[in-house]
């Protein structure tokens, strides 16, 4: 009888941990192009600078590429180049996801650009001759402290319930 209680308590704990873990989201938007593309970083504060990357190695994009989004001006990447930068508009809605579309040689594909909930008051200066300006984000970007606290409380509560159920004695044990 004790084995059943221990197994059910373990199952309760494992299921609580499973439900508190972030879910993987699969997008089936059939966004297949003969060239690769990306926006880095994928989450940025309004007024920040993003890098637009285009993979030309496999010959999928030979001409000039056009990158459009509702949150920055249209950018043209000339033939022979694989990167450009864009500055996100200051009036971008925090928490919104904007579609960034890469079009080249009659083929287009898009990816999402998320606007962070905080605003940058003094953005880094744009200098195309230097590398990426690191240190402007945190490991908790996009997380809400209330969500983290609620998740921690659920995990602690489920572990406490599992412990209580495994330690509880009934009159059926004969003890």
Can you describe this structure in just a few lines?
The chain is of the alpha+beta class.
Index terms:
alpha+beta; Immunoglobulin-like; 5-stranded mixed beta sheet
* CATH class call: Mainly Beta
Strand arrangement in the largest pleated sheet: 2-8-7-4-5
Give me the secondary-structure category: alpha+beta
Query: CA-to-CA gap between the ends?
Result: 12 Å
List SSEs in N-to-C order: HEEEEEEEEH
Describe the model.
This protein has a single domain, classed as Immunoglobulins (Immunoglobulin-like, Sandwich). The protein contains 2 helices and 8 strands. The protein has helices at residues 2-20, 145-167, and strands at 36-40, 43-46, 49-55, 65-69, 72-77, 83-87, 97-104, 107-119. A 5-stranded mixed sheet has the order 2-8-7-4-5, with no helix packed on it. Strand 7 (97-104) and strand 8 (107-119) form a beta hairpin. The protein is elongated. Mean pLDDT is 76; it is low at 22-30.
Strand-helix topology:
Elements: H1 2-20, E1 36-40, E2 43-46, E3 49-55, E4 65-69, E5 72-77, E6 83-87, E7 97-104, E8 107-119, H2 145-167
Parallel strand pairs: 2-8
Antiparallel strand pairs: 1-3, 3-6, 4-5, 4-7, 7-8
Helix pairs in contact: 1-2
